[in-house]
Amino acid sequence: MKKITFSVKSVLLACFLIGAVSMEAQVEFKLQTEMFTRFNDVNDNGQGVTTGQYYDFASNVLINMEPEATGLASINNNGDVSGQMYFDEPNGIMQPAVKKNGVWTPIGWFPTADPAQSGFTTYGISPNSKYVTGQMSIGCCDFGTFLYDTETEELFEVFDPAGETLTAYAVTNDGLMVGWLDQPDGGGTLRVPAFFNKDGDITLIPDGQLPQFNTNTIGDINSSNVMVGDFDGQPFIYDMNTQTFTTYDAPQGNSATFTSISDNGIAVGFEDVDFQIREAIIYHPDLGEQPLYLKDVLSDLGVTINTADGMLGTAYKISDNGNYVAGWVNGPPVFAEGWMAYLDDSILGTQNVLQNTVSFYPNPVENVLHLNSKEMIDSVAVYTITGQKVSNVTFNENQTELNLSSLASGVYLVKVSSNGNVENLKVIKQ
Q1: Residue 192 in contact with residue 165, Cβ under 8 Å?
Q2: Environment class of residue 295 by beta-carbon count within 10 Å: exposed (0-12), middle (13-18) or buried (19+)?
Q3: Mind listing the pLDDT tens digit for each residue in 287-340?
Q4: CB of 123 within 8 A of CB of 83?
Q5: DSSP state of 287
Q6: 200: how many CB neighbours lie within 10 A of its CB?
Q7: For residue 341, how far is the Cα from the chain centroid?
Q8: Which residues contact 314 (CB under 8 A, 6 or more apart)?
Q9: Which distant-in-sequence residues (6+ apart) come within 8 Å of 163 by Cβ?
Q10: Residues 6+ apart with CB under 8 A from 405
Q11: Per its UniProt record, what InterPro entries does this chain match (predicted)?
Q12: Which of 392, 394, 353 is nearest to 376 (CA)?
């Protein structure tokens, strides 16, 4: 794997020149001092969950979960939570559960599963709170995915027809799940990135290619059906709309993964820099062609990384709006202290933060985007949130129309160049 290095200060300076960094950015970093505070998730309001506590970034306060709950897994922008409750408290048997509108509801087990002999892990809750997903087994070894519909209270069993293990880590509003499949006849463990639905329609990525590494996965999916994960030790971004699969090199060229992606295309994860030592990474096209260390980005913005080893360890989740990143420091994950960073949304050039000289409508757009600028528009370039240029048009006028009808639905970055400046617009294509 090729080793690629960057000057973070040079990258950030370049971002400033194109409007990606604002002098008004308010970036913060908060480290927990107690063990067992690793963060599992964070939402747009800076509300996070550890395995047993709720967290509020603004107040930096941790609050124990409700007595009826026995574990927390994820939280969405509604404040609804996936987790677990007791199934049989005297015998210590748990079950998946969901907290919706402030009320915890048990999900239960597959009808043919013996809770005393089976296992489960709860993972994601959809942004609209309709679905909860995770892994569940029938007996000791037959593992599949569960999908629970909180509206109909149906529990769906999703298994690989070939009988191999199937696991989901995240789920969309439409019930599309992402995770991995243990490839049939793999001669042992061979986890392949996969997405699938409740009907058992399974798609492996990249198409027609099996990994050499034993463990690979899709870790997350955003509202535009853009997925992130790792394949043969390289972090990847897969755009389901364009079927574009792109791998990236970690800063030191070691094995790495993207664990989470925001709706505006910011991916986070970690690189394995040494034995059981990780360093958090962050990627967005406006920061450069390859991922950077999150600690370097924060340090260049004046933030002190006050961890014991000066490293961030694991970046595990980023909020949908891209403003909050949560994870935990190096050490045994079960005992690790958690951390959370606030990234002002002007950092990554996904908002109109430079001169505010360009107005545009409608957004979301179906076909034609109207642009109006105080300065003469020289050119307009359109990028997917993975950094792929899909359109580049030259103009010489203040008002213009941009036809986006041929693009697939999703989030795009529209870069408008005028009088030597570049303004970045985030546009949602319906």
Answers
A1: no
A2: buried
A3: 888 999 999 989 877 888 999 999 999 999 999 999 999 999 999 988 999 999
A4: no
A5: G
A6: 15
A7: 15
A8: 38, 259, 270, 278, 280, 327, 328, 329, 330, 333
A9: 142, 184
A10: 366, 367, 368
A11: Secre_tail
A12: 394
Q: What is the DSSP letter of 225?
A: S
The DSSP symbol for 330 reads S
Residue 8 banded pLDDT, cuts 50, 70, 90: very low
Is the pLDDT at 51 greater than 90, yes or no?
A: yes
DSSP 60: T
pLDDT at 355 over 50: no
Pair of tokens at residue 363: 């957004």
Tens digit of pLDDT for each residue in 368-407? 998 888 788 888 888 876 667 888 777 767 778 889 988 8
Q: Residue 280 carries which side chain, given as an amino acid letter?
A: A
Pairing mode of beta strands 47-49, 93-100: unpaired
> What pLDDT does residue 19 have?
39
CA nearest neighbour of 136 among 111, 102, 153, 154: 111
Dihedral sign, Cα of residue 398, residue 399, residue 405, residue 409:
positive
Query: Please, how many CA atoms are within 13 Å of residue 165, restricted to the half-sphere of its CB?
Result: 24
Answer yes or no: are the C-beta atoms of 230 and 189 closer than 8 Å.
Answer: no
